Amino acid sequence: MDRAKEIVILSGKGGTGKTTLAASLSKLIPNKIIVDADVDASDLFILLKPNPLRQDKFKGGSIASIDTKKCIQCGECEKKCRFSAISRNKEGNFIVDPYKCEGCEFCTYVCPVNAIKMNPQIVGNWYISETSFGTMVHARLIPGAENSGNLVALVKREAQLIAKKKGLKSIIVDGPPGIGCPVISSLSGAALALIVTEPTLSGIHDLDRILLTCKQFNVNAKIIINKADINQSNTEKIQQFADKNGLEIMGKIPFDRCVVKNLSKNLTPIDSDNCGAVKKEIKKISNDILRYLSE
Amino acid sequence: MWISVASGKGGTGKTTVAVSLALSNRNTIYVDADVEEPNGFLFIKPVIKEEFSYTELIPLIHQNKCTFCGKCADACVYKAIAILKPVKKAIFFPELCHSCGLCSFVCPVEDAIEEVPKEKGKIRKGEKNGQLFIEGILNVGEASGTPLIRGMKKYIPHDRDVIIDSSPGTSCPVVESVGDTDFVLLVTEPTPFGLNDLKLAVEMIREMKLPFGIIVNKHEEGNNLIRDYAREEKITVLGEIPFSRKIAEAYSKGIPVIDVLPDGKKFFVNIMEKIRKGVNTGG
Predict the structure, then answer these.
(1) Distance of alpha carbon A275 from the chain centroid
(2) Is A69 exposed, middle or buried (0-12, 13-18, 19+ CB in 10 A)?
C-alpha cells in the first residue's frame, strides 16, 4: 500500500486557527498535496490563492417533487415520510420541503398514481488547482446543501490519486469544525490528526469530544494549543490532561495581534517578520511533522 | 419570537451572542443546537432537571428469516445495506443509515427486518435563576446531528422568546437550526475569513427567505470590511462588539460577555428590541 500519509487538521470548536495553521504548514512543508476539507466554509483559498486547472460539479442525493395534476391527495406520502418533508400548502396541495427532504424515495414507493418524481441535485463544485506551494484539491458546497461528508471523501480520493501520479508521500488536510459527518469523513484513512485547541473552557470541552472521535476511528492525534498565553491555568489543564492520556502537545502558539493583522492582508504569520514568536513555534511544529513524515 | 444565531465561520462568537441575548432579556429560553460541540452550558451553568435519550429507528436484519433477495439493499439510496447472496449474509452500515424505514417496508418476508431504536444523543433541560435552558448532545461517532436538532425543537416551550445557538458552517444541521425561526442573527468578525463565510451564510439565509441581520464581533475602529459589505448588500448591522483582550479572557473562563462589557446588558436588550421591530414590520 503506497497511500500518501494524510495529516488532518481538526479542532472540534470552530475558529481556533485550523486554516491559519494549515496555510502556514502548506508553505513550510515541501512535496505534498493540499486539501481543503471544510467544504461548507472553505477559507484556505484566501491564503493560498489557488489557480483552478479543473472544475467539476458534485452531485448529491435527489429530492422529491409532487406533480399536483397527477396527485389524488391520498396523503400516503405524508404519512410515510419520516422527515416531515411533505405537507399541504395553502391551496391544499401536497408539497415537498426541499430543505427537509433527505431523498430516501419512500414516498415514490407508496404513491398509487406515480405523481412523485426524484430530482437529482447538484450540491457543489470541486476543483484541482495549482498554488505556489503545490497542488490543491478543494470544494465548495452550495450553502444549505447536504452530503458534505461525501464531498470530503471525494476531494481526499482525488488528492490521493494526484499524490500517486506525482510520487508524493504526504497530504495536508484542512478539516472542518465539529465531530459530525464531514469530520468523520476527513478522519477516514488519515495517518495523523493535529488538533488545534485554545485554552478556553469551550476549547477544552470540544477538545475532549474531538479526541474521542479520533480514538473511535483509530486515528493517532497530537495537540496544538493556540493563543496559549490567553489563559495560563487552562493551558496547564490541557497539558495535564495530555500527560495523563499519553498525548503529545506539539506546540504552544502564543497570542499575538500580528496574526489577525496579517490575516487581514491575506498573509499567514510566517509571511512576515513582525510575528516572531508565533512564527518560531509554527516552524518548530512543521519540523516535527517533517520528521514524522520521514519516519 | 424565535431567533437563531448562526455564523458560517466558527469561533466568531455565536455562543457569546446567544447566551448574552438570553440572559439580558426576560422570559427567554436558550437552546443549544450546536449538538456536535455544545458550549452554552459553560456560560449559563444551568442546573439540569431532566435528561433523556434521543433515539432513531434503525433496521435489525434477522439473518435466520432473511431470504437475501436484496430488495432492501436495492431500495436504500444511502447504500447502508449490502446483501452478499453467495454467502447468504446481510450487512448493515449504521453510520450511513438515515432511519427512513424504507428497507423494512420493501422487505417481502414478515419480521425479517425489525426496526429498533438506537440512541443518537441526549437532550437535557435545565434552569438557572429563572433562565431556561435546553441542549442537545450528539453521541461521539454519530454522523448527523440534524435529526437530534429536529427532535430537540419539539421540546421548546411556546410561551416565551427562544434563542437558538446554531453550529458553524452552512450545511444541513445549520439549515435545521435556523429553519422555522422568525429571525436569523449572523455573527461575524472583520477578517477576510469572516467576510467570506458571512457571504455564504447570507446566500443560504436568502435562499431560505428568512429575515436576518448582522452582529460584528471583535470590531476594531477603522476596520470597515463588514460595514461596507453590509451597506452594499443592504443588510442591517444590529451591533458591534469591540475587540478586547478582557472579553477574550472572560470568555476563556466561562464568564458571559455582559458581565465585562460596559453597558453589556443594555446593548443586548437594545438588539432584541431592534429585532422585534424588524420582525413585526416585516423588514
Answers:
(1) 27
(2) exposed
Report pLDDT for B283: 46
Contact: B171, A99; criterion CB under 8 Å: no
CB contact under 8 A, A14 and B138: no
Is B282's pLDDT higher than 60? no
Q: How far is A200 from chain B (nearest CA, A)?
A: 4
Scored b (16 or more CB within 10 A) or e, B123-143 reads: bbbbeeeebbbbbbbbbbebb
Domains of chain B: 2-54+120-280 (3.40.50.300), 56-118 (3.30.70.20)
Backbone angles phi, psi at B251, to 5 degrees: -55, -45
Q: What are the chain B neighbours of A234 within 8 Å (beta carbons)?
A: 252-253
Distance from CA of A212 to the nearest CA of B (A): 7
Of A217, A260, A197, the C-alpha closest to A13 is: A197
State how far the Cα of B138 lies from the Cα of B143, in Å rounded to an integer: 9
Residue type, A180: G
Nearest partner of B41 among B130, B119, B121, B137, judged by Cα: B137
Which of A104, A109, A147, A216 would you mutate first to test chain B, the one with the most B CBs within 10 A? A104
Tell me which chain A residues have a C-beta less than 8 angstroms from the C-beta of B8. 41
Average pLDDT over chain A, rounded to whole?
A: 95
- Name chain B contacts of A16, Cβ cutoff 8 Å: 10-11
HSE-CB at A66 with a 13 A cutoff on CA atoms is 29
Between chain A and chain B, the number of residue pairs with CB atoms below 8 A apart is 182
Euclidean distance between CA atoms B264 and B16, whole angstroms: 12
- The CATH classification number of A61-122 equals 3.30.70.20
How many other CB atoms are there within 10 angstroms of residue A54's CB atom? 10
Which of these, B164, B67, B172, B141, lies nearest to B111 by C-alpha position? Answer: B67
Portion of chain B with pLDDT greater than 70, in percent: 99
**How many whole angstroms separate alpha carbon A36 and alpha carbon A168?**
17
Say whether pLDDT at B281 is over 70.
no
**CATH code for the domain defined by A5-49+132-294:** 3.40.50.300
Q: What is the CA radius of gyration of chain A?
A: 23
- Residue B160 above 80 pLDDT? yes
The set of cell numbers assigned to B271 is 438588539
From chain A, pick out residues whose CB is under 8 angstroms from the CB of B204: 143-144
* Segments making up each domain of chain A, as ranges: 5-49+132-294, 61-122
Q: ∠ CA(B90), CA(A79), CA(B114), 5° rounding? A: 25
Nearest alpha-carbon partner for A210 in A6, A3, A11: A11
Buried b (16+ CB within 10 A) or exposed e, B73-104: bebbbbebbebeeeeeebebeeeebbbbbbbb
Strand partners, B123: B52, B136
